[in-house]
Fold each of these.
Amino acid sequence: MTFYNNRAVIAHINEEELYLFRNINNQIVMDYYNYNEGNIQETIIKDALSEFDIMINKDNEIYLIYQIYK
């Protein structure tokens, strides 16, 4: 797995669900968009370096890979 120095990653789960992960000031913020349930924004990591990536398995589970900022 290669880390990319992108500040945002999009995970398109299906036609009704979309996740957006962003690194803002070494914090990973998740935006969740759902056609039926609305939108949620949450800071999920507070000590990440700028490099991170995600993976989605066949069951639509999202795995976040990041490096801790120390």
Amino acid sequence: MTARFLPLYDRFVSAHDRLDAIVTDHYKEMRLAQIDAMHSDGRENAATFPRAAREGTRARAHAAQRRTRSGSHRGEKSVRSTPSSRKSPPAPDTS
């Protein structure tokens, strides 16, 4: 049974990946058209937020990719994210 299942699974995964790419591209085109329409309507703030969010998402994806390539995804924490490196607030003065 497994011998019949694996080729079907591989075909499904490749077809799903192609469909996902098509849907993602279509969504991006629609979203960019919405942003352009907001710009042309003079709604600069409304158009700036989605563009900034998209750029932030891209930056987070690149950062995750760099962590993966550097090996820090294997349970190693950066110095910045360890609890001991965070400064605690000063104690209130009780005198």
Amino acid sequence: MERRLTSVRSNARTMSLRALSAGCVLMALAGTLGGCAGRHAELETAPSAASIAGRYIATLGDGDASNAKGADALTVIRLPIADSAAGVSQWDTSFAQLPLANTMTGQPGVVSVSSDGTFGFAIGGKGATPTTWQGAGDGVVSVDLTDPMGPKIGTMSMMGMRPRSIALSPSGTLLAVACDKPGAQVAIGRVQNGVLEGGAAWNLGDLGLSENAGAYSVAWHPSGRFVAVVLSESKSVAFFEVDQASGGLGLAAWGSPVMLGDTDQTPAFGTFSDDGNTFVVVSQGFTGGAPTPGSVATIRFERDAKMRPGADGRDFADAAHAVIGRGPVGISPTGLVVRGSSVVVTSARGANQGAAAGEDVGGVISLMNIASDGRLSAAREFDAGGLPMGVSLDMSKTVLVVSRVSAAASGGGDGELVFYTLRSGRNDEPGDLMKADFTVGVGSMPHGAVIVR
């Protein structure tokens, strides 16, 4: 259902927008128009409402989570947020909300949308409410986004697979899934017209890994040729080549798994750099069962490995992947963006913040830079002004979008989107973030999924 928001200027710098019906999007807008010339060109100032590039923003909310006062929903906000045709004294913005049951609070990889923005998939179903950050859903739900203001829920697939993370291939023809199902921890489904149409699943043991390695997250290489699987229990990352040559679906190990080597760090999610030469993986810190500061590591990915004969008679890729950079981030990392040499990690708490019961703590945004040799610069930290739950870039890759909960760490609270200009760093200098002086409210508890298309 499409709803429209309007506002009247209350002073020279602040615009307030209020939903005409209850329980939805609240916005505050201010600032001046910015400019963007060309791909990856950077804004010189904080973003304005009109400088966020794309057709829409989508975010998934676990609105009935502990202490929250809402319902689970996918919220889609039409861009531009500010309709210039309405004049300086009034703003007009459209949005839609689609009920979508989920229990994946604070978990990246719960939603994936095609590059053209016309369809997507989400991990859905209430299932058993997860007691740890390693929750799983009931299945994968297709979402028709051909009309962003009239999104439609499709069928649920992969029932019983307990999906943890999903990722659409760059072409949108394959969906990779990390599952919490013995004997089928990694799956790839074929996508036809925005719907899953068959596929294959693999036991980690059959892929040359420990069956207890714990597939937690998946990510595609920009070429669409490789898939990375983050293995939480074995504290490693494995890379596979996807084979469709025979008309079926096959996975072949591309080099040996990369061991991250820190027993107090549990890898959770990752992504490839734009050029595909580096994989960036974020880990959760745990000591004695309690959360501690997390970490980020850069892995050199060797895509042009030579094929050599193996002991079993099959050729294998002699790829020498290796960890080349490490750095600390905040406690309980929740999101990751990599643009060029810039690495952005959102965390629920700063490394030096307490964790006393009921204590109001705010999250942090850590900004790092990857040097030419792959090393990570020291992190520059920014106060997130709440609990950051997800992060993405707009279509121009100049504006960073962070979803956060404006409440205490104990749960509940209103969800909102915050916008920053991302300025690139250089070598050991991590760049900068310039925060916009407007936010977009999106109901209760946004989390781990904010996408701009």
